[in-house]
Design brief:
heterodimer; A: alpha/beta; 5 helices; 5 strands; globular; B: alpha+beta; 5-stranded antiparallel β-sheet; 5-stranded mixed β-sheet; 10 helices
């Protein structure tokens, strides 16, 4: 029973509806759909935090606490209105409970972004959103497989 | 006129009288004792300061103090003349009616037999108009700088916003091509391909314009760096190309300079990259980089190659953004590299020029601040600020 890995959970914070649509289609092709709730799309930093903490519109059951039983992976677009991506990243990494969540930062152009600052703020990885759809799908697949690897890892590590 | 000739004594007395009269007409003259008490002033002093002679004699120059200079300024002045040295400088004084005026002042101590000052004579010329013009010019230059900065920021903001819709065009054109290729006619697919090409090109152009603007808006601080190291860094990025083409890069005696390290790296990246790109098909590229200290405060650098060269008619054109001498089919690139080089060199107070020898090669000459050059404060470019006399 403990063999079944917890379900894959990826939260994508992306404000642009066109990019949301493209990302959604790309992950669809990798078999990750919003229907199965394996992937969740939020529109801004505040919604992201609500989702991660199981607050507000994400508190469906009325009970306290997050709907995630294990930390999800967060894909975070840096340029978002209403608490922009950088602030959201800072909020997550400064929170004792949320700090463990890996955050992959997405950006449209590497020219405008201070990559070092992102890593310093605690980002796990940094991806420039590919323009070509095939590259986007490949990126989605890589993210999914990376995360699948992580969630499959045993909860306890006993090297002896 | 026939008169009896003057005796030597009378002649020199008259000569002195003439000189004194000339001096009194042209300059503001005052004589003080060793304590600074005014013992004599000429008419011009009264005219400019607005005080009568009676109001000046027996007083010190505090009478015309404007309060502009700190006490240290006058302390230093007195220290200089008290030991018998001449003091020269610019002083802001105040007229009787409260208006301020600037004078260029020379104070000469008259020494007694023992070599100690017994009197001081100060000779002044009014320079208020010039000073005012200076202040105005500085202010204007500052405004111009700010306006330029605003323009650059606007350009870079606009470029960024322009890229967004282009990215979408590319992304969705590609999406259609991927998903519906079979359902679209062959010609339709060709059009899609052109759509993708064109939008990709435009994105590259805007990105390059951004790069160009950022030379000015995102420039870093100048530091003391070794020119050789900057070249070496650039070569790291070009390693693959250098290997591919069998190129040799020779750097001779590159000295220390004072410049923005990442921009200098970019400068050489572009120049050497070009040299590799426009290599001659019949021989391996040989690129030489030489430096010389032939101008005060500057290092002259020459980057030469044995590539295809160019017609010297185009020597000026090639530095303009997007001016290319070849078609896209012949050589890739948007034509912004040399414009970036020019802007980097100019930002460091220098100029760049090119020499082309068709089928033989090219040489690029430019200057950079030497290690001994003054700090950016005093150069004629960025930023414009005067050391020393503050105007606040």
């Amino acid at each position: 029973m403990n063999d079944t890995p917890p379900p894959l959970r990826i939260v994508v914070a992306e404000d642009d509806p066109d990019d949301r649509m493209l990302l959604s289609e790309a992950f669809d092709e990798c078999g990750l759909t919003t229907v199965s709730k394996e992937i969740v799309f939020v529109q801004n930093g505040e919604e992201l935090l609500d989702c991660l903490r199981g607050r507000g519109p994400f508190n469906k059951s009325g009970a306290k606490g997050s709907s995630f039983d294990s930390p999800p992976l967060v894909l975070l677009d840096l340029n978002m209105p209403l608490m922009d991506g950088r602030e959201a990243l800072r909020a997550i990494k400064n929170s004792a409970s949320l700090r463990c969540i890996p955050v992959v930062v997405l950006t449209t152009s590497s020219q405008e972004v201070d990559v070092d600052a992102c890593y310093e703020q605690g980002a796990s990885s940094f991806i420039t959103k590919p323009v070509r759809y095939s590259d986007l799908v490949r990126m989605a697949r890589q993210v999914k497989e990376y995360w699948l690897d992580i969630v499959k890892r045993p909860r306890h590590f006993d090297p002896s | 006129m026939s008169e009896a000739p003057l005796s030597p004594g009378e002649a020199s007395a008259m000569e002195l009288e003439n000189i004194k009269r000339a001096l009194d007409r042209s300059a503001i003259v005052a004589i003080t004792d060793t304590r600074g008490v005014i013992t004599s002033v000429n008419d011009k002093f009264c005219e400019i300061s607005g005080y009568d002679r009676s109001e000046l004699l027996g007083c010190t120059h505090k009478v015309v103090n404007s309060g502009f200079h700190p006490p240290e300024f006058f302390q230093s002045l007195w220290k200089t003349i008290a030991v018998g040295s001449v003091w020269e400088g610019e002083i802001k004084n105040r007229r009787k009616n409260g208006d301020d005026y600037w004078v260029h002042t020379t104070i000469v101590p008259f020494l007694d037999a023992r070599g100690k000052p017994e009197r001081y004579i100060s000779i002044r010329f009014e320079i208020t108009a010039r000073k005012d013009a200076e202040v105005k010019t500085l202010e204007y230059a500052r405004k111009l700088e700010q306006s330029n900065r605003d323009l650059e920021n606007f350009a870079s903001l606009a470029a960024h916003d322009l890229q967004e819709p282009l990215r979408k065009i590319q992304a969705f054109a590609d999406r259609i091509a991927a998903r519906d290729a079979e359902r679209i006619s062959e010609q339709g697919n060709v059009y899609l391909g052109k759509l993708l090409d064109a939008s990709g090109r435009m994105r590259a152009l805007i990105s390059d314009l951004l790069t160009l603007a950022r030379v000015s808006t995102h420039g870093g601080e100048s530091k003391l760096i070794n020119l050789g190291n900057a070249v070496f860094d650039a070569l790291q990025d070009l390693e693959l190309k250098i290997e591919e083409t069998g190129a040799r890069v020779v750097a001779i005696d590159l000295p220390e300079i004072r410049a923005d390290p990442s921009q200098v790296r970019q400068l050489f990246l572009n120049l050497i990259g070009n040299a590799l790109k426009f290599r001659h098909s019949a021989r391996a590229p040989l690129i030489e980089i030489r430096a010389a200290h032939d101008l005060p405060g500057r290092v002259s650098v020459a980057v030469s190659d044995n590539g295809i060269g160019f017609d010297s008619r185009h020597a000026d054109r090639i530095f303009k953004p997007f001016q290319r001498l070849h078609t896209r089919a012949e050589y890739e690139g948007t034509g912004i590299g040399l414009a970036v080089c020019q802007r980097i060199v100019e930002r460091h107070g220098g100029t760049i020029r090119a020499e082309g020898h068709p089928h033989e090669g090219s040489v690029f000459h430019f200057t950079l601040p030497s290690a001994l050059s003054p700090l950016p404060d005093e150069s004629s470019h960025f930023p414009l600020r005067r050391k020393g006399s503050s105007h606040e």
